[in-house]
Design goal:
The protein has 526 residues and is α+β, with helices and mostly antiparallel strands. It has a domain of 307 residues: Jelly Rolls. The chain has ten helices and 22 strands. Strands 1, 4, 5, 8, 14, 15, 16 and 18 form an eight-stranded antiparallel β-sheet that branches. α6 packs across α7. The protein is globular and about 70 Å long. The N terminus is likely disordered.
């Protein structure tokens, strides 16, 4: 095994340990499923708070028009895909938005979805939760969300003030770390993009979906996705044990008083069209454009005049279950061994908007915590931040990167290095394990991986994916999951995802994949 592979495997192991420490087992609370599923929800029929081109229908009207119905034992929540409309008419496309009658504070929430509306131009589907009062005083948690032709899921938090996350212990790609409305992130909140192609939209539906789990505790809010066939046995047994879940797709933790910022949430399924996010970025996507029309107006025109495009814009939900904590599991209960810590933090330039009416993007600035009088030497490769560990004297390297990881290369020791928690400027001759990412900001799948906003390698921490590929095998295997290069050595050439292999290791056909950094060894670049 190569050193790089060994480091990656060890890094993922410790990442899993960190995510399972303090894990909790749960007992079943409420079950929403079968013929009584809709009884637990209210149908929202007001004007769309996100300014979407949509008309939310009541339960009776939706049922009469077959927008809600049973499909076997599952519940179908769809949209009107037969009525041609006019933008001038002012009435948007028929859809449903259902909100749980009960409110919840903390717990484990699991939804089994076989099909979702995502990956279709003009759509903005979401499964999310929010509290009462003026938004977002009691918080918002976005579990499944995306717009237009997006291929990866976006998870996010929104608060009114004082909530920052550190981006550690997760597999997703994070670009915004401040969740507060009164921060530079504004209404975008703090977001994490899943890197797997089966978490949202067409890829999700092709695999018959899977299970999303959201754990909400006083310390963190985590989201996991389990594809069909890989659902943990403890979930199937209705006794979920988060210690068996592995590293979450998103792990929102850090300088955030979760108990103060998140409380009494309803859970919501909805599908809107255009609106503050999907409409504003419609023009940046691969979706149909109309000469002389703005991004928003092009979106509305497409939604109004192309009803058949939304035949597959539906949710098919097997169940939504809530669980309450039953017992705490100490970190020593894990049988996984620890070694070098590796961060899965990756830079992403894809922006999101909340259900407020403002689309905001920002760049992240990192500030170190004030060092304590006597600092403890890092034993897990983390430094600074809330633990205040120093890299000085550690086995991981003497430099503390801006992301809070110890190392000895330029990615750790140069720009952003925290001198309060180690030395800066001591650069070893060994090659960095961190990849610099770059790409275009758009709502395309590539946006979740790379963008024209450049990010410091140190800001990403020790990366589990480098932009340099492994030596190509004499005969490369065509990718079946949209990944390319890397340890698998898959090629995009001849795949259904596009022939270009981006610097981040994903197949596609737009400039985000085929332009700067495109890997010619695993596809074409043009």
């Amino acid at each position: 095994m190569s050193f790089a592979s060994l480091f990656l495997n060890i890094g993922l192991t410790i990442s899993t340990i960190l995510s399972t420490a303090g894990a909790t087992t749960y007992t079943l609370g409420d079950t929403y499923s079968g013929s009584t599923f809709l009884d637990g929800f209210d149908f929202f029929t007001g004007a769309d708070p996100t300014n979407g081109f949509v008309k939310y229908l009541d339960r009776t009207t939706a049922g009469n028009n077959r927008l809600v119905r049973m499909v076997g034992n599952d519940n179908y929540l769809g949209v009107d895909y037969s009525s041609p409309l006019t933008v001038a008419g002012g009435v948007g496309r028929g859809s449903v938005r259902i909100e749980s009658k009960k409110r919840y504070t903390k717990g484990l929430f699991i939804v089994d979805v076989k099909h979702m509306p995502g990956g279709i131009c003009g759509t903005w589907p979401a499964f999310w939760s929010f509290g009462s009062g003026t938004w977002p005083q009691t918080g918002e948690i976005d579990i499944i969300e995306g717009v237009n032709a997006n291929a990866q899921n976006k998870m996010a938090l929104h608060t009114d003030t004082n909530c920052k996350t550190d981006g550690l212990g997760q597999t997703g790609a994070q670009s915004l770390y401040n969740c507060a409305l009164d921060s530079p992130s504004g209404a975008s909140g703090c977001d994490v993009n899943a890197v797997e192609a089966n978490t949202y939209g067409a890829g999700f539906n092709a695999a018959t979906g899977g299970v999303y789990a959201m754990e909400w505790t006083s310390k963190s809010i985590k989201v996991w996705f389990f594809p069909r066939g890989q659902i943990p046995a403890s979930i199937t047994a209705d006794a979920p044990d988060t210690a068996t879940f592995g590293t979450p797709n998103s792990n929102f933790q850090g300088a955030c008083d979760i108990d103060a910022r998140f409380k009494e949430h309803k859970f919501i399924f909805d599908t809107t069209f255009c609106g503050d996010w999907a409409g504003n970025v419609y023009g940046d996507s691969s979706c149909t454009k109309y000469t002389g029309l703005s991004s928003m107006d092009s979106c509305k025109k497409f939604v109004a005049e192309t009803p058949a495009a939304f035949r597959n814009a539906y949710w098919q939900i097997t169940y939504f279950k809530t669980y309450v904590a039953s017992s705490a599991v100490s970190s020593s209960s894990s049988t996984r061994s620890s070694s070098v810590a590796s961060s899965t933090r990756v830079s992403s330039a894809s922006s999101t908007t909340s259900r407020a009416s403002t689309l905001v993007t920002s760049t992240r600035t990192s500030s170190a915590a004030s060092p304590s009088a006597t600092k403890k030497v890092s034993t897990d490769a983390t430094c600074g931040g809330t633990n205040g560990f120093t890299c000085q004297g550690s086995t991981f390297g003497q430099c503390c990167s801006s992301a809070g990881w110890c190392g000895s290369t330029s990615a750790y020791c140069s720009t952003g290095c925290q001198s309060g928690f180690g030395t800066c400027g001591s650069i070893s001759s060994s090659s960095s394990r961190v990849a610099t990412t770059s790409s275009t900001k758009s709502s395309s799948p590539a946006a979740a991986i790379s963008s024209t906003k450049t990010s410091s390698p140190a800001a990403a921490g020790p990366s589990t994916k480098t932009s340099s590929s492994v030596a190509a095998a004499p005969t490369k295997k065509v990718t079946t999951d949209a990944t390319c290069g890397g340890s698998k050595g898959f090629t995009c050439q001849g795949s259904s995802f596009g022939n270009c292999c981006s610097s981040a290791g994903w197949c596609g056909s737009t400039s985000a994949y085929c332009g700067t950094g495109c890997n010619k060894s695993f596809g074409t670049c043009s």
